[in-house]
Design brief:
Layout (H helix, E strand, L loop, with lengths): L4 E5 L11 H9 L4 E5 L3 E2 H7 L3 H12 L4 E5 L2 E4 L4 E2 L9 H25 L5 E5 L8 H5 L3 E6 L7 H17 L2 E4 L2 H8 L5 E3 L19 H4 L5 E5 L9 H10 L4 E5 L4 H5 L8 E5 L6 H6 L3 E4 L13 H8 L4 E4 L12 E3 L2 H12 L4 H12 L3 H16 L1
Parallel strand pairs: 1-2, 1-7, 2-5, 3-6, 7-8, 8-9, 9-10, 11-12, 11-14, 12-13, 14-15, 15-16
Antiparallel strand pairs: 4-5
Length: about 400
């Protein structure tokens, strides 16, 4: 797919501070196409509750000043910050009233997109909808694109906010899309229930900073912790991670030091894990130092809970662990099966104890190289190539 005008209906803003699949895909699209990245519009409740947050304040200032909401951010790529406010309607019950206001929200957004498209002289557009199942629901009808693509990267409808209306709206948008793309086999299977043109396109990762491990310095606060270090890095949240498993591992192996790096939610803070001498919470760290911390881990872990939120989730951290050749022990899920030749997949506490023990005594440079090679095969270039390939094979 080349020389097309692609409009991305994003569910995450371009200026989001965390990594975003959609942003990476947009940049890859822009290498061969013109791209308009449409940020999610502000809704009334967000303005009311978060008006002091920098990102919201910036958007409100633009709304008041009526500045140009179209910004060129690179070669062939622009962002649109819609100069509208949409109604906060998630609290409404499913039915006529919700659909009425949701169509209004969709129409407001469609009007902004049409205006921006005209300014950029976009024609014969392709819509790439990044899981925006609410204000993007009717855009296929309102914008009449040549192709409507829907992208699923998380099982969002497992979360209460999305489940209320997404449980019946997402199947609708999947069904009417021309193609559906998923970053995990679990989510592909979900999409196939509603659309036979649903494909698994893998996941890309940015691993440039993991290239030369010899140049990485282990942080001081990690050097002060004695061997062996069993490490996890990422958002430490009780929605995804198994607190009880971590507690049992720490008690069973008091000589192991379990190190958790990243922001911590309230439930973890209130847990009794911090009372155990061999569990260390190091807090949030700068993104650019993530490889340095991973280098200091003897074994990397991903002690996930298995629930509706995690079962279809592609854990990018596994690629980051493997990119440095580290042995990894992770909870087995449908998505984790693709890592089976390169990680130890555990089903319970005893598996974790067994596999970590094996990993601690590994000393095989060939296995280390294989892990690095596998991780580096997961690129955004490859993921987008699979998207192009699927479209071209079906419409040729």
């Amino acid at each position: 797919m080349k020389n097309r005008d692609i409009i991305i209906i994003a569910s995450q803003a371009w200026d989001i501070e965390i990594g975003s699949n959609c942003k990476n895909i947009a940049l890859e699209f822009a290498k061969q196409n013109r791209v308009l990245y449409v940020n999610p519009p502000l809704d009334r409740i967000t303005i009311f509750k978060k008006y002091k947050e920098p990102s919201v304040k910036k958007r409100l200032e633009w709304l008041k000043s009526k500045n140009n909401d179209l910004h060129e951010i690179g070669n062939n790529i622009w962002t649109l910050y819609p100069s509208i406010i949409i109604e906060s309607i998630n609290w409404l019950k499913p039915g006529f009233l919700y659909e009425f206001f949701n169509k209004i929200n969709n129409r407001r957004l469609a009007t902004q997109i049409k205006k921006a498209s005209k300014m950029l002289s976009f024609n014969n557009i392709v819509i790439f909808n990044d899981s925006n199942m609410f204000s993007g629901l009717f855009l296929k009808e309102m914008l009449v694109p040549a192709l409507h693509l829907y992208y699923i990267r998380d099982n969002l409808i497992s979360q209460p906010y999305f489940k209320r209306h997404g449980s019946y709206l997402e199947p609708q948008i999947i069904e009417k899309s021309d193609f559906v793309f998923a970053n995990s086999t679990y989510l592909q299977e979900y999409a196939l229930k509603y659309n036979s043109k649903s494909s698994y396109v893998g996941q890309g990762c940015e691993l440039d900073s993991f290239e030369n491990s010899d140049m990485l310095n282990i942080p001081e606060n990690l050097l002060s912790i004695s061997f062996p270090i069993i490490g996890y890095i990422g958002f430490i949240t009780s929605m995804r991670l198994d607190i009880e498993l971590l507690r049992k591992l720490a008690i069973s192996k008091p000589n192991w030091n379990i190190v958790l790096v990243g922001p911590t939610d309230q439930k973890f803070k209130e847990s009794k894990l911090s009372e155990l001498n061999n569990i260390h919470f190091l807090g949030s760290v700068a993104t650019e130092t993530v490889p340095n911390y991973i280098k200091g881990f003897d074994v990397c872990i991903n002690p996930q809970l298995v629930n509706d939120l995690t079962i279809g989730n592609y854990p990018r951290k596994i690629d980051e662990y493997l990119a440095l050749g580290k042995p990894v022990v992770a909870t087995i899920t449908k998505t984790m099966e693709i890592f089976s030749g390169y990680t130890y997949l555990a089903d319970n506490e005893q598996d974790y104890l067994h596999y970590i023990e094996i990993a601690l005594h590994e000393n095989d440079s060939e296995i280390c190289c294989q892990r690095k090679k596998f991780a580096k095969s997961h690129t955004w270039e490859e993921s987008v190539r699979l998207i192009y390939q699927e479209i071209e094979s079906k419409i040729a």
